[in-house]
Amino acid sequence: MTGTQNTFTLTDEPKGNLAFKLFWFDDNSHFDHLQRHNYFSLIWIKEGSGILKSDFSEYGFEAGRMLAFSLYQPFMLSAKEPIKGVAIQFHPDFFCILKHHKEVSCSGILFDNIYRPLM
User: Fold this and answer.
1) Neighbouring C-beta atoms of residue 47, cutoff 10 Å
2) d(CA 66, CA 119)
3) How many CB atoms lie within 10 A of CB 31?
4) Based on C-alpha coordinates, what's the Rg of the chain?
């Protein structure tokens, strides 16, 4: 695990790809250009507002919003006011989401279905 003051990153050592990244941002420089990643992105806007461009549409956003993007989903943020927040980015292999979709769904092993009798 490598880290700086505002960024913590785990990499998949054999492949060298991003596994998990957590970082705090104080401006829009991370998102002011088109993004299209092979990992999921969660962005919590703590301060500021702007326009989200995603999937050929535009949406307004403001402080207190959580933005979520799937694999290869294109997005870009244009700030109206300076934005600050937290971002989490993770590859599907980090949680084995795609390989074990049935097991990690809400009625699977990780999040057990409360209505299913235990055996």
Assistant:
1) 13
2) 38
3) 22
4) 17
pLDDT at 108 over 60: no
Provide the 8-state DSSP code for 39: S
Cα-based angle 68, 69, 71 (whole degrees, multiple of 5): 150
Q: Report the alpha-carbon distance of residue 25 to residue 67 in Å, rounded.
A: 14
Q: What CA–CA distance (Å, rounded) separates 119 from 117?
A: 6
Distance separating alpha carbons of residues 107 and 97, to the nearest angstrom:
14
The share of the chain scoring above pLDDT 70, in percent, equals: 75
Best CA proximity match to 28, nearest among 5, 61, 4, 1? 61
Q: What is the rounded CA–CA span in Å between residue 25 and residue 89?
A: 13
Quote the pTM value: 0.74
Alpha-carbon dihedral 38, 62, 84, 66, rounded to 10 degrees: -40
